Structures are given as C-alpha cells and as structure tokens.
Amino acid sequence: MKSLLLAVAVVSAGVALSAQTQSPRFDVASVKPNTSDLETLSAFQGRRFTARGVTLKALISTAYGMSEQPLPDYQISGGPKWLDSDRFDVVATAPGTPDSARGTFASPVLTILRNLIEERFQLQTHLETKDLPVFALVLARRDGTLGPGLRRRTVDCAARATAGDRTRPLDPAPADHRTCGGRVGPGSLTATGATMTNIVSGLARLIPGINRIVLDRTGLTGTFDVDLTWTPDTTADNHGAPLPPVDSNAPSLFTALEEQLGLKLESTKEPVDVLVIDHVEHPTAD
Questions:
Q1: Which residues pair with 271 in a beta bridge?
Q2: What is the average pLDDT score of the chain?
Q3: CA angle, residues 171, 177, 183, in degrees to nearest 5
Q4: Which of 38, 68, 138, 233 has the smallest number of CB atoms closer than 10 Å to its CB?
Q5: How far apart are CA 212 and CA 240, in angstroms?
Q6: Nearest-angstrom CA–CA distance, 207 and 186
C-alpha cells in the first residue's frame, strides 16, 4: 500500500495538510519536458487533465492544495532550483472522474495528480508545522450588514438551466441565472454563485499582494454574487503582460473589501503545515 497521501484541509484550529489512503491513477498519462513557448495553463475538462509549460512547483501546488485553493509557495519548502524553472507538459485521462461544476480541480483529480507526481518525479515529502502569518476574513460591520458588492444568490448554480430558462433562449439571462464562475484581473474580482471558500481562494491565490493563507471567519453560508474593484499593485507580476491603466480614484484592496463587500482582513498567526520536499528527480520516460 502506498504511503499516506496529503491534501490540504482548513480547520477551525488552524491550517493543516490532512492524510488520505486512496491510490487511484490516471488511465493514461504523459509527462514530457516543455520545448515550446506555449502559455502556462492547467485544466481538467472532459475527464482529461492538461498542463502546458508548468513547473513542478506549480504541479505540486495544485496537487497538494484544495480544489479551490492551490498550496501557496510559502507552504512548500526545499527541493532543487529546477522546481521553479524547468517546465513540463502533462496530458492524462481519468474517464471515471467527473468534471467539477465550477471548472476547478475536484478532490479525486488532486489525489490522482499527487500519485502521478510521486511516481514520475519520485517525489518524497514530509510535514513540518510552523506558526505563520495568515489573514482572517471577517464581517466588517457590527450588525453584519453586507456591502453592495456582495449579494446573496437566490438561485442555485445547479438549477440555472431549468426548462423555464430555455423557453427564452434569445433573452439576456437574469442575474440569478448567469453561469456560475469567477474572474480575477488586476484590480477586479467578479463572481457568480461563489461560496466564501471561493472568495477566500481568490483573495489568497489570485490577487497580487496578499501572499498569505486567507481563512474564512465570516460565518456566512450559501452562495453570493460578487463585484469588487480596487487599485491594483502596480509592482505585481502580470505574467509578462503590461498592467492596464490604474484608476487613481479606486480605493485600496483593504478599503474596497470593507466598503464594497462589508468584509475585512485581520492579520493573525496560526499553525500551518508546511510541505517539505525530501527527494525529487526529473521525470521518468513515458
């Protein structure tokens, strides 16, 4: 039996990497060095995992994270320098694994990806617990009032394609019936049908300048439509592309969260499990 596999679990007492015992595999998998300048991307769609031009660090971040929130770099320690520089193409199929409704990586996909990385890259790891700075996302107002940019959703994402919706195919979809998903750009975050887990994932991973684990301490349940705009960090990496013009009148991210969503980020420290890389090799041939 393969040694215990790791997954990320956010618990009320802190942030920990939990263990799993299942060992499913991709039916067919190809891991090759990337020799092109194709844009970096990873996706699981149509029972097929595809990653182009990704580093092993990025693969580890995805595989050992949660479906909505990859493991941040500061929770990965050790390993050779090529983890951040050498790029790979990965194509693999998992016919028995359904796609995620939100287009993210479902837990079974992460488990299979961990197995693939451990097998092809001979990855060996262990955990160390450290007290690290984190942000707790909390309600900003004593009465719990939400801001205008955070609106409770009245129609479940799974119910958006009802028979009633299809009777008017040429009409614009009502706000509550738009396809659920999200988009983050420099200085903007929009989402439909987002849970608080989705929102903290966007803050922690996708918004430049956060660079910390973000924990949901709002107590809010259900799904929301979100519109948030702020002045982006002009020093942040935009993957080689120039940043759009900055709106000098837009508030800072922290101010925007309070004014537009009725939420705020509080700095604190919590025990965090760090994934330490003990051994890794360049991938074996397919």
A1: 131
A2: 78
A3: 110
A4: 38
A5: 23
A6: 8
